[in-house]
Amino acid sequence: MKNPRDIIIRPLITEKSMDDSEFNRYTFEVAKNANKIEIKNAVEEIFDVKVEKVATMNMNGKMKRMGRFEGRRKNWKKAIVKLTEDSKAIEFFEGV
Predict the structure, then answer these.
(1) CB contact set of 1 (below 8 Å; sequence gap of 6+)
(2) Per-residue confidence band for 88, with pLDDT thresholds at 50, 70 and 90
(3) Which one, of 80, 89, 91, 85, lies nearest residue 53 by Cα?
(4) Is the pLDDT of residue 67 over 80?
(5) How does this chain assemble (predicted)?
(6) Hey, which of 25, 36, 50, 56 would disulfide with 20, CB 3.0 to 4.6 Å?
(7) Ranges of H-type helices in 1-96
């Protein structure tokens, strides 16, 4: 079994994700090879909450330039996790 801290890379703190936290939805950057079941188990183990639903999406890296040189940021995976109604909020997102 994979380590849950290898699956959840970091939380995404944006204006939209902060608005979603009012509805028990939290956004994370996750490992590209993680599936919804692994993401659900990792969030439940790390934050001690119950997950109702997981939505994932693959994000393409943006093109970037440095002078005449072009490059690309890495592709990554985003997961939006919805908690059950009786779950407590994730403290990490509170007060940000």
Answers:
(1) none
(2) confident
(3) 80
(4) yes
(5) Part of the 50S ribosomal subunit. Contacts protein L29, and trigger factor when it is bound to the ribosome.
(6) 25
(7) 4-7, 15-20, 36-47
Q: Is 37 helix (H, G, I), strand (E, B) or coil?
A: helix
Token readout for 75 is 């592709």
Count of C-beta atoms within a 10 Å radius of residue 42: 24
Residues contacting residue 82 through CB under 8 Å, at least 6 positions apart:
23, 24, 25, 51, 52, 53, 54, 55
Q: In angstroms, rounded to a whole number, what is the distance separating the alpha carbons of residues 85 and 22?
A: 11
Strand, coil or helix: 69 = strand
Which position has the higher pLDDT, 7 or 94? Answer: 7
Judged on CB neighbours under 10 Å (0-12, 13-18, 19+), 4 is middle
Look at residue 96 and tell me whether its pLDDT is greater than 90.
no
- Give, rounded to a whole angstrom, the gap between the first and last alpha carbons of the chain: 32
